[in-house]
Write a structure and sequence with these properties.
Layout lengths: L1 H13 L2 E4 L12 H22 L2 E4 L13 H11 L4 E6 H7 L3 H7 L4 E6 L18 H10 L5 E4 L7 H16 L1
Parallel strand pairs: 1-2, 2-3, 3-4, 4-5
Helix pairs in contact: 1-2, 5-6
Length: about 180
């Protein structure tokens, strides 16, 4: 708790937001999902009170079950966001998670109910949008359309491939995303 509060202090100083994804771990062996959810709610409330004091926002990022046992879908995450009920506790989207864990990417984005403050944009291949030498697996124009319809005004980031020269890949993806989002 204290370590995460220090991260919130740092983010608040710069007016930045903090993502809470797989860092929450896989759960506690032998503890029921109900009890884990209650413990998570108590922890999130305490952290949110701290975020309010230091001027930052915590963004709960759903993650696949291989990484964590709680908040695997946007519906589960937004239910917790609504339970906490603070503008300083929100949700983060991730196109990989949307592709893997949601019935559809559209369903996952809409399940966030316009509360998302950030989105990670990348292909299931882990390449950023617009750079794959083959056809993209994800329908980026449709993703952009849905985000616009949902009033998404947050920030976005891409995953840059771990091999090779990152700058040309980043430039190509930025050009594609600027064209896509206008």
């Amino acid at each position: 708790m204290e370590g995460f509060k220090r991260i919130l202090d740092f983010a608040g100083y710069f007016g930045a937001r903090v993502g809470l994804g797989a860092a929450r771990g896989k759960g506690i062996p032998g503890v029921s999902k109900h009890d884990l959810e209650k413990l998570a709610e108590d922890i999130f409330r305490e952290l949110t009170e701290h975020a309010e004091q230091v001027g930052t926002i915590i963004m709960l990022e759903p993650a696949e079950a291989v990484f964590t046992s709680l908040f695997n879908t946007n519906g589960e995450a937004i239910a917790m966001v609504e339970k906490i009920g603070s503008p300083n506790f929100s949700i983060m989207l991730d196109t990989h998670q949307l592709w893997v864990a949601e019935p559809s990417i559209e369903h996952g984005i809409r399940a966030a109910k316009g509360q998302a403050k950030h989105i990670h944009l990348y292909e299931p291949s882990r390449l950023p949008p617009g750079v794959s030498p083959e056809k993209d697996a994800l329908d980026w124009p449709n993703i952009a359309r849905i985000l616009k319809e949902e009033g998404f005004e947050g920030s976005a980031s891409v995953v840059i491939i771990p091999e090779g020269e990152p700058e040309p890949v980043a430039r190509k993806s930025v050009a594609y995303l600027r064209q896509l989002f206008g």
